[in-house]
């Protein structure tokens, strides 16, 4: 499984051509309706984070709250909460973070990763389409020149990845599993520095 | 990243030191229904020190329940625990995820669903600090430790030890740690790691075997 995640991440990277070469095409609404990312349902994941040669593992909870906000919480296996982020109606709040993580660059990186995983950029209606090679890019503008895409094959038969970048890809998200909102595995691969987050779904003992 | 790893190992080490402990005071026992402040702390201290010195090994199963208070969300995990005096610990989480941590002296192995890591405790200041706490506990000198303030309560079957960290690096992670200890053999029944946010992790030990023969291979990596 680890090899699969690694391979798909490398594949995503190797497929990521500069956006300058994207050729604008009419939007295929059927494809948009079929593959527009919908975010993640409430789930627990076993998480492995590799960043600049260091490895950290833990449990990641993605929770849909009754007030329609979304929470992303990362804890150690032994129980310590490392961070708790809230995404609510276009706002972002760090509900909790241990001192070692309270750095702007860390928080902003994680915020973008999980915002994209939760499909928040794709909630806006204006989507454009372009093609590059045998891939179709459906994009929205996020901040400034930064764009979020979901990428399909040219026949729109499969969602290949979600990708964020400006002139070139910054990071990609590759998921696997039968249900798009409840993927079995997720790999968030950064392309401008050495960081990957691997998530593997946990079937938990329900005690809610 | 090192500090995060250290925090995880610190939790494991806390598991270890929870098998030998103590302290005092007597107020606010409303926090712990069914328990009342211990009247004879000095006697308890002596008994606890004596009993902990007799524990050479522990083999146990455990159930861990993590509660995220604000999110009304729980996750329950299970696993196995081994301790061998003086400085060998092994934790195996078996469900719903797999995770192994072995501490053997200064060396630590961490194996999760994604990777395996070997760490030397000496390479990190926080590790060293936790190591000192661990040794203080095993040797019974934790009672005089300046790392925690503590209160002790009792009921018919057990003692309850509330340990509040004084040190900032531990305070960042825990508001307090509450141990419930069996009166019959001074073994730990449960341990509650209470975080500043209100989140908590309660670990309950079951099927405990004290002072059985544990092969060193259990802790070898």
From TrEMBL, chain A:
It comes from the Bacteria. This is Uncharacterized protein.
From TrEMBL, chain B:
Coiled coil: none annotated. The keyword NADP does not apply. It comes from the Bacteria. Gene3D superfamilies: Lipoprotein localisation LolA/LolB/LppX. InterPro entries: LolA/LolB/LppX, OM_lipoprot_carrier_LolA-like. SUPFAM superfamilies: Prokaryotic lipoproteins and lipoprotein localization factors. This is Outer membrane lipoprotein carrier protein LolA. It comes from Pseudochryseolinea flava.
